[in-house]
Amino acid sequence: MKEHSYTIAEVAKMLGVSPSTVSRAMNNSPGVSKAVREKILDFVDEIGYHPNTIAQSLSRGTSNMVALILGDIRNPFYSDLAFYIQRHLTEQGYIVTTFNSEYDPDKEAQYMRIAQQYSYGGIILVTVNSEAADKYLTNMDIPLLMVNRITSNYDGSLVVTDNFQAGYIATRHLINLGHKEIGFISGHHQSSTASYDRYRGFRQALSNYHLEYREEYCSYNKDWRLETGYQAAEEYFAKGADSRPTALLLANDLLAIGFMDYCGSHGIKIPDELSIISFDNIEYANLSQIQLTTVSQHVELMSEEAARLMVSLMTKSQVEPKRIILEPTLVIRKTTGPCPGM
Prior knowledge:
The strands form two sheets. Strands 2-1-3-4-5-11 form a six-stranded parallel beta sheet, with helices on both faces. Strands 7-6-8-9-10-12 form a six-stranded mixed beta sheet, with helices on both faces. The protein is built from twelve helices and twelve strands. Helices cover about 45% and strands about 15% of the residues. The radius of gyration is 24 Å and the shape is elongated. It starts with 7 loop residues before the first helix and ends in an 11-residue tail after the last strand. By secondary structure, the chain is an alpha/beta fold.
């Protein structure tokens, strides 16, 4: 059959169903039986119907398209976050476009401009704390949600883990194992409020248990990748034994796994010689060769809450900014143990 510029209402009328049923079938959303879905998909294929999403958005002033802006899609935590957010939103008939900023503030601002230019219905921002993003956020006139991040000037809706509490319970776990000399290895605090809040929780736990904070036990790196963790281990073990703690917190699981890779290749036993704990609880942390003690951010729950809140903001059922703060959970595996000599 020759292609024709049909509307969704015309397609629905020809099939004897509602326009919303056609929309749900084409977006693979729930609420449509398998038989009806197949009938609709076969028919729109036959007549060559392809909805113009952007034109529809402009005509009704709303859109079912969501821009998801991430700092680094290679990070397994972000990959999982993107996967579950997209799954939840797709099930409700929304289309998710993922943008990878590579922690570049200019790209963050560029992608937000693109989302506004092409009439996206909303933006989910999972990225670094940058002045460029901060300045642009104040000019946004479409629903915006921050997930796992918060910038200094942002007062809108967000979904985050209580990272201060995460840092505190991780440090307390090491203290309860008898460690008194504890260090912290991080990415750059200025580009991550999550990392900085974990560090603050670490400092608070030391203070509450009357333990000394020693600057030489801590280091700050450019990012949170595996390679950076390996390099951090090289620098750590280049120090004299007197400048090394008995336990370390690493700001995320990738840093910790990179650090442990160095230890494994240099015969350093964990946790016999050094206890290691980190944050995120990515899937790799539970591998039998790794068994990393970590603090879970509950990525599936975070994604579910983010998707639900994004829909509420886009449909205007949630008007005032809403802040959802999730409680972290300590996951004890095999990289932490009693302080040597106990």
